[in-house]
Amino acid sequence: MTVVYAERGGLITTIFVEPGDTVTAGQPLLVVEDSATQLAAEEAKLTYSSAKISLAAARISQRQAKAILGRQSELNRRGVVASHHLEDAETAFLMASNSVEQAEAAVAKARLAVQVAEDRVSDLTVRAPIAGTVTRLSAHVGGAVLDRTDAIHDGVGLLTIARLDSLAIDADVAEKAIIGLETNLEGEAVLDAFPDRPFTFALLRVAPEVNAAKGTVRLRLTPIDPPPGIRPGMAVRVRIALPPPNSQSTNHQGANLQ
């Protein structure tokens, strides 16, 4: 299961999904409104437009200075004007060229600021990080949301997406019952919701640590051809038949789909 958070805080204005909906990776799930972020984007665009206008003006001045320099150079070659007039024209052209370089740098900086601001605005649209099914939706239109960092810290997600075709079963068994358990061992599971639809599972992993407080070990089991309609969090009873010489079975009543 994947818990979805908003990158930026704000107020929810639109929700596109409901529990049970199937979504694709990158699909919009909801939209958050944050006036400060949107205002910053508009200001960045205005600054960019102003920078481009300044660059255009600087280039016009540079072309004019270049033309004057050309005339002064020709007149100086003919001996019509003194050398200091040519030097003044050269200085003016260099200053105009420097102004163009500064204006180009300002445009590049403003363009980058627009990209950053637009990325932040894009973050206001929360998208599905994975393909799957929406299993929980706690967000509502008009509700305030925290940004990702604060939401993760407080454990407040907007919704949960699960891949129902790849659910696993977590089961805690007494540590004395793990003798003989090996990966790929198969067993039988029965969901409390569908007691008449038992299915097979394979032992994927035995946790390397024991829960000292409970005296149990966590098993991760992979369902094999489970019945339709399974959901994360469903209670399931499991039974693992151990091979010889440990010909017995390990039962657990409190496993859950994850």
Distance between the termini: 7 Å
- Apparent shape: elongated
CATH architecture of the largest domain: Beta Barrel
Query: Can you identify the CATH class of the largest domain?
Result: Mainly Beta
Number of domains: 3
Number of helices: 3
Number of strands: 14
Uncertain runs:
none
Strand order of the largest sheet: 9-12-11-10-13-14
Structural class: alpha+beta
Helix percentage: 25-40%
InterPro entries: Beta-barrel_RND_2, RND_pump_MFP
Domain CusB-like beta-barrel: 169-241
Family: Belongs to the membrane fusion protein (MFP) (TC 8.A.1) family.
GO molecular function, one term: efflux transmembrane transporter activity
Question: What is the strand and helix layout of this fold?
Answer:
Layout: E1 2-4, E2 10-15, E3 22-23, E4 28-33, H1 35-78, H2 83-122, E5 125-127, E6 132-137, E7 144-145, H3 148-154, E8 159-162, E9 169-174, E10 186-191, E11 199-211, E12 216-224, E13 235-241, E14 249-257
Antiparallel strand pairs: 1-8, 2-4, 2-7, 3-6, 4-5, 6-8, 9-12, 9-14, 10-11, 10-13, 11-12, 13-14
Helix pairs in contact: 1-2
